[in-house]
Specification:
Elements (H helix, E strand, L loop, with lengths): L7 H15 L3 H8 L15 H5 L4 H26 L1 H16 L12 H11 L1 H18 L2 H18 L6 H14 L1 H9 L10
Catalytic activity: an acyl phosphate + sn-glycerol 3-phosphate = a 1-acyl-sn-glycero-3-phosphate + phosphate
Subcellular location: Cell membrane
EC number: 2.3.1.275
Amino acid sequence: MPEFDTAIPLLLVLALGAYLIGSVPFGLVITRVMGLGDPRQIGSGNIGATNVLRTGSKAAGAATLLLDGLKGAVAVIVARTIAGGDAAQVAALAAFFGHCYPVWLGFKGGKGVATFLGVVLALSWPVGLLACASWVAGLALSRISSVGALTAAGLTPIWLILTGRLSMVVLGIVLALLIYWRHRSNIARLRAGTEPRVGRKS
């Protein structure tokens, strides 16, 4: 667990800023700009990239994935630039929480996978690349989006330990647990064998 060298008031301000950045619902913004309707009315009702892909637009899905990841990375980089590594970890958690529970949408947001990958890449790019590779491998082998997400989240604390980023392990575990919590309905469908594969619209 990191020692917080940054003053608590500054940490709180940076956390609030990161939360607001994370709360930007890019999936909803992109689908509306592209005239694709409201992703909350289709598929899982989620605003993340996988559900945006169910609109039939690969470009919208890719843009959502990129921007949701980028907002997490930006929040971390800004906090680290202003106040250092402890603030970066606080910002990572706050941005992730903002994506999952955005104030603009009544605290009903996405499941946090792209934002999770974005904050991990910004905190430690080697670990971020390993997390992304884990996500791609899980997705490629199963053709199920949630399997890729759960694989990346579950392995990230291990990658942090193996690469010596011990000060980030607690954060990695917390983020992984939140990913699993946000995917609890997916886990139930995986156990029942009813989880849809990528490309299906429902």
